[in-house]
Amino acid sequence: MTASFWSKNFIKFHDTDVIIVGAGFAGLSTAFWLTHFQPGLRITILDRLSPGAGASGRNAGFLTKGSSAFYKSLSSKWGTQEARELFEFAESSLKETHEHILTKSSGLDFEVTRSLTLLECEDVPPGVGLDFKWVKQGELPFKLQKKYAGGYQSGPEYKINPRELLAHLEQILLKRKVRFQNNLSAYRLVSEGVLTEDCLIRGKQVVLALNGYFPQFHPAFKKIVTPRRAQMLAVQLDEPLDCPDLYYHPDERVYWRMLKGNILLIGGKRLVDTEGEMGDFEKVTPIIQDALEEFLHSNLKLKFQVVHRWSGIMGFTEEELPFVTKASAPLDAFAIGGFSGHGMGLGFRSGKEMAQLMIGELQESLFTKIKSVKIDI
Ligand SMILES: Cc1cc2nc3c(=O)[nH]c(=O)nc-3n(C[C@H](O)[C@H](O)[C@H](O)COP(=O)(O)OP(=O)(O)OC[C@H]3O[C@@H](n4cnc5c(N)ncnc54)[C@H](O)[C@@H]3O)c2cc1C
Question: Which residue range(s) make up the domain with 183?
């Protein structure tokens, strides 16, 4: 949106040190670490809606390193060393999320668990130095033994309610005097700061954390980020299902978990409608939702009633790896995003690296090392 002639006179000014655009997990994690390293820093976070309104508050709540299939493909594309470094990065991201948010917030409900990548036939291990344990068929939950030959397990990982996680992180930041400006869209960077429809926020540094909305903000991101929809389905099962882990089934491109009250949450099947799932607007479609239901019926042989359907927007990069980097812009600007479906697992440590880059403690992030991205805004 732009400011009309009529509202021009009402343009407000506001001064701060750092402006973070986008109040998702990436933006809030960056603010967490900036205020951790430099407690006196003045930070304003603006969001066109509110904290957690984007993918960060709509995901499946897998706080995980990712499936063994993800690391296997990473190893074959970038090399085992890079896959191992990313695994360690994700591991430390989870550890720090646990230490600094999960255990620090009273009333935040989370569960320590593991993830299990289910396979219909035994496969070679995902890579040297990656801490995945093969779970044999007979050790799987009874209901899964008919379908699967076993799976690669990794942990500790966490089951969370992502909306709650974001709310607790927001509370931590409010206590650190971070200023939140909700319902305010940034539409341009200028040398003094960020312009919104009726406000110039003046700041020395700007961080863009816009996920799937990067290309909407500036065309420079069109070749870097592709917005893709991801849909979710929640069902109430007719019979109890004892499946305590976070499950991936890479061949069927689905992931699922149990919630309290015998509710199962499932997401994925994006590839049955690749074209239809491109774009940055949310909706649920019969083609994806039917595919998710069909998976539960025919693969897991479950009977259920549908409780809820929803979607969110992810920001994909070509390599499905994020960027945490400086941008060339009219002022000191940075960008963090492109998590491609792994933002909750990788986000907290990525926010730390973003903060370290900004204060000069780090010259490049792990992701710049694996694949550098040039951003000219
Ligand atoms: C359905 C679904 C399931 C998923 N499941 C998982 C999972 O289980 N585990 C996992 O690790 N990852 C999962 N992901 C991916 C994960 O949610 C994302 O990678 C992560 O949330 C990205 O965080 P972010 O802060 O970059 O983006 P977002 O949370 O999308 O934040 C971007 C913010 O920018 C704001 N914004 C956009 N444009 C503007 C503007 N011009 N001005 C101001 N504000 C603006 C938006 O309102 C939004 O709040 C899932 C994603 C989806 C959609």
Answer: 5-58+164-225+319-370
